[in-house]
Automatic annotation (TrEMBL):
The lineage of its organism: Archaea, Methanobacteriati, Methanobacteriota, Stenosarchaea group, Methanomicrobia. This is DUF1917 domain-containing protein. InterPro entries: Bles03 (IPR015034), TIF_eIF4e-like (IPR023398). PANTHER family: UPF0696 PROTEIN C11ORF68 (PTHR31977). It comes from Methanocorpusculum labreanum (strain ATCC 43576 / DSM 4855 / Z). It holds the Pfam family Bles03. It comes from the Archaea. Belongs to the UPF0696 family.
Length: 224
C-alpha cells in the first residue's frame, strides 16, 4: 500500500472505520505470518500461546510496512491490549467479532485473492446467531485440512445495514464454478460436516454483474 493509496482511503473512511480497517489488515498480517510458521492465530489463542509477544513483534513489522495504517491501529491501544482483543475472540469467533464484518480462512498455500476471482464461486450456508460459532469452527477446520475449497468466510456480530435478518452466512469458496465435480465434491463434504439442508451456490461473475440484486433473477447457480 502506497502513501497515495492511504490518502485515498483516509479521505473515504471516518476515523473509527479506518481504525477497524487497520485492525483487519493487522489480523491478516498476523495470519500470513502464522501460516508461514505452520500455525494459525486461532490456534495460538486457543492453546494459550504467547499472543502478547506475537503482537509486539508483528506490530513493529506492520508499522514498518504499513506506517499510516499503524497510526490508526493505535486507536486500539498497545500490543498487549490488541492481544487481549484476540483472546476475547475478536477476529476469531464470529459472535465476538465487532471490528470486522467478516472472518476469512484461506486454504493453506492459497492466495487470499483467489476467493475473489471471477471464475470462483461459493456455497452459502445460513445459520442462526446461536449456531454460527460452532458452524464456523467446522468449516474453518475442514478448510485448513483441505477437505473443502480454496477458502471460506463468515459474517460476524458487527452490525451490517445490508443484512436482511439476524441470520449469519458462511461462504465456502471453490476455485472454478464450471468444475462441477469439484463443486459437488465440496457440497458432499459439507453434508458430512452436518450441513444437510438444501443450500445454494453463487458464481462470483454473477455477483459482480449485479445479477442477484435484480428482482426475479434465479438466486443460485446450483442448489443441492
Amino acid at each position: 500500500m502506497t502513501a497515495d493509496d492511504f490518502e485515498i482511503i483516509e479521505e473515504e473512511f471516518p476515523a473509527d472505520e479506518l481504525a477497524d480497517l487497520a485492525f483487519g489488515m493487522f489480523t491478516i498480517f498476523i495470519e500470513k505470518h502464522q501460516e508461514s510458521q505452520g500455525s494459525f492465530l486461532f490456534r495460538e489463542v486457543e492453546s494459550g500461546g504467547d499472543i502478547d509477544g506475537l503482537c509486539q513483534k508483528l506490530m513493529q513489522d506492520f508499522t514498518t510496512e504499513y506506517a499510516p495504517l499503524a497510526d490508526s491501529l493505535k486507536r486500539f491501544g498497545t500490543a498487549q491490549e490488541i492481544a487481549d482483543l484476540y483472546r476475547f475472540g475478536e477476529g476469531i469467533v464470529p459472535s465476538k467479532t465487532v471490528k470486522s464484518y467478516w472472518i476469512q480462512q484461506d486454504k493453506p498455500g492459497t492466495s487470499s485473492q483467489a476467493a475473489g476471482a471471477e471464475e470462483a464461486g461459493k456455497w452459502l450456508i445460513f445459520v442462526g446467531p446461536e449456531e454460527v460459532d460452532a458452524a464456523w469452527q467446522k468449516v474453518r477446520d475442514a478448510t485448513i485440512e483441505g477437505r473443502l475449497g480454496i477458502g471460506a468466510k463468515v459474517s460476524t456480530a458487527k452490525e451490517n445495514e445490508d443484512s436482511h435478518d439476524d441470520r449469519k452466512v458462511i461462504y465456502v469458496f471453490t476455485a472454478d464454478w464450471a468444475d462441477e465435480p469439484d463443486v459437488m465434491r465440496v457440497r458432499a463434504e459439507l453434508k458430512e460436516l452436518g450441513f444437510v439442508d438444501r443450500i445454494g451456490y453463487k458464481r462470483n461473475l454473477d455477483t459482480y454483474a449485479g445479477e442477484y440484486r435484480e428482482k426475479g433473477k434465479r438466486v443460485a447457480y446450483y442448489s443441492v
